[in-house]
Design goal:
heterodimer; A: mainly alpha; globular; B: mainly alpha; rod-shaped
């Protein structure tokens, strides 16, 4: 919709001042300085991509949380709390349980770390051969780069909302370009060492910033008022995740368990932390400790989203008319609710620190994602294709940096021009599933089933690609064709089933020759 | 509904408290890990 004068006045009425801008500027300059400093320590591709595999437990927890608790996570989770109420907490609890169990058992991640690989597709090659690595690398990059396509725009919406900028002009574009330029500079310069260092400082600022916001929200409303308002407007669905009123239910909860496993043990940006750790014991400790962060990264933003909902419903008619007008098509994007709430909640001075923490969250996700996808393309697609004329380490680092620049340009373009109709969570889930439904099959069967074959692996990857059918308009068209309403979770489960069936059938019908057994990673 | 509200209150209180402790621990011990990382990288260079 067109944001009118009332919207502009609401945006400009927050507590953000020039003092807060100064705090943000100092923080960003310090981040750039870290990138320049870290560049001195980069000598080889292992140092660039996995920081020489030298992370201790505390630093590994900090960098894992720094990556996974991105501003995009805060934004879409706050949106989920805003729309789903306290019932959304179940997603966070499922994440905690699944991540802890992965750490306790070492499921997938311990064996991957033992295998000494740098990326998941590298494991594909050792276990299933070169063609699987290249196909896996391509699908991984396509899914991953599509997945991060809206990060920049959503993150910039937070900055616009919290600082009180005019959202109707071209400032959103200016913020997007500025943020991506900053991230590119220090990630290109420093690789994993700078990522780890900035993740540490960002963890410190971010964790205390989030705790501060929780305390201020509780001070402002109190738990009892929040539950009363949610009960009044959302009813039972605002608390009970097993009922469909809040948009959840048992199928949704089951899909969250799959996503919980994926986000900690399959998703490359998380697994890279396991591969960077000192040893298997560190990996397991890191996961058990990080399980708490995996829960909190959802739960605190849900809580802030609920706070934003209570703020909107108790702050008078103007806010309610903006977010819940009689004609729903005229509502302003509810992604703006949490930053607006924060800009009215946190006092001047502290607001600059909170904003810096959120920009930190944005940068820590972007740096890891840029590094991850660009190194996958370099190491798992380009390098295996150039076996006859191998690339030098310098050449690989240069190529990785060039690909980062291209991905940076893409996220600016995609954020400006993509006009999707699905919400952010659905978009991310389904673009991620293009990669992870196939990856689950390859990793689980590859690591734990001796008869898994390279043909089965290729079929599993192609079966997982069917998740693209769950994307927005494609899913609607498919539903019309089948004469039924399809949910993203149902398409996801279907793709997972197809991928696993492909692996089992392909492996049984087309086993690898005897020497294929040598590829099994113990 | 009130049962779920109590569950979420307890889970939230425990989660946030534990996260506060974790944040302090990571802040303190992470510095030592950074020092060791640079020592390791220095050795790998040699």
């Amino acid at each position: 919709m067109q944001l009118d004068e009332a919207v502009r006045s609401v945006f400009a009425s927050g507590n953000f001042t020039s003092l807060d801008w100064a705090i943000v500027a100092v923080y960003l300059l310090a981040s750039l300085a870290i990138g320049v400093f870290a560049n001195r320590f980069i000598k080889g591709i292992a140092g660039y991509v996995v920081a020489g595999r030298s992370l201790g437990t505390a630093l590994a927890v900090a960098t894992m949380t720094g990556t996974e608790l991105g501003l995009i996570t805060v934004m879409y989770s706050a949106q989920k709390g805003f729309t789903g109420g306290f019932a959304a907490f179940h997603i966070a609890v499922i994440c905690l349980i699944v991540t802890f169990l992965v750490g306790f058992s070492g499921f997938i991640v311990a064996r991957l770390r033992e295998s000494q690989v740098m990326t998941i597709p590298e494991y594909y090659e050792r276990r299933f051969g070169r063609r699987t690595r290249i196909l896996g690398g391509i699908l991984l990059s396509v899914g991953g780069i599509l997945n991060m396509g809206l990060f920049l725009k959503v993150g910039s919406m937070f900055v616009v909302g919290v600082t009180g900028m005019d959202p109707t002009g071209g400032l959103l574009t200016a913020v997007m370009v500025t943020l991506i330029a900053l991230v590119l500079i220090y990630t290109i310069l420093g690789g994993m060492v700078s990522v780890v260092l900035t993740d540490y400082f960002q963890f410190v600022v971010l964790s205390f910033g989030l705790l501060l916001m929780v305390a201020l929200t509780l001070k402002r409303f109190g738990w009892e008022q929040m539950t009363e308002v949610v009960a009044q407007f959302k009813g039972r669905g605002g608390f009970d995740p097993t009922v469909s009123e809040g948009g959840f239910g048992f199928t949704y909860m089951g899909w969250q368990a799959v996503l919980g496993l994926v986000s900690c043990a399959i998703w490359p940006t998380a697994v890279t932390r396991a591969l960077s750790s000192r040893n298997v014991q560190t990996v397991k400790r890191q996961y058990m400790l990080s399980s708490l962060s995996f829960m909190i990264r959802f739960m605190i933003p849900y809580f802030l989203g609920i706070g934003a909902f209570v703020f909107v419903m108790t702050s008078g008619g103007l806010y309610q008319r903006l977010f819940f007008p009689a004609d729903a098509s005229l509502a302003i994007d509810n992604l703006y609710a949490m930053p607006l709430f924060v800009s009215h909640l946190v006092p001047t001075g502290l607001l600059g620190l909170v904003c810096a923490a959120m920009i930190a969250a944005f940068m820590s996700t972007h740096d890891s994602y840029l590094l991850c996808w660009s190194s996958v393309i370099t190491l798992d697609v380009v390098a295996p294709l150039r076996r006859q004329k191998p690339m030098t380490e310098k050449g690989m680092i240069l190529l990785t940096r060039l690909i980062m620049l291209l991905i940076g340009a893409y996220v600016v373009f995609w954020g400006l021009f993509y006009e999707g109709t699905e919400d952010i969570w659905d978009y991310m889930g389904i673009t991620g599933a293009i990669y992870f439904t196939g990856a689950i099959s390859l990793l689980v069967f590859g690591l734990y089933w001796k008869r898994a074959s390279s043909t089965g692996a290729v079929l599993a990857l192609l079966g997982g690609f069917s998740a693209i059918l769950g994307l927005g308009k494609v899913r609607l068209l498919l539903g019309e064709f089948l004469g039924m309403e399809l949910l993203p979770a149902e398409v996801g489960f279907f793709s997972l089933f197809l991928s696993m069936a492909g692996m089992v059938v392909g492996s049984l019908l087309f086993p690898d020759p005897k020497d294929g057994d040598k590829r099994e990673v113990k | 509904m009130s049962g779920w509200a109590v569950v979420w209150k307890v889970v939230f209180a425990l989660g946030v408290s534990a996260f506060a402790l974790l944040s302090v621990w990571v802040t303190v011990f992470g510095l030592g890990d950074i020092k060791r990382m640079f020592e390791d990288l220095g050795k790998q260079d040699q």
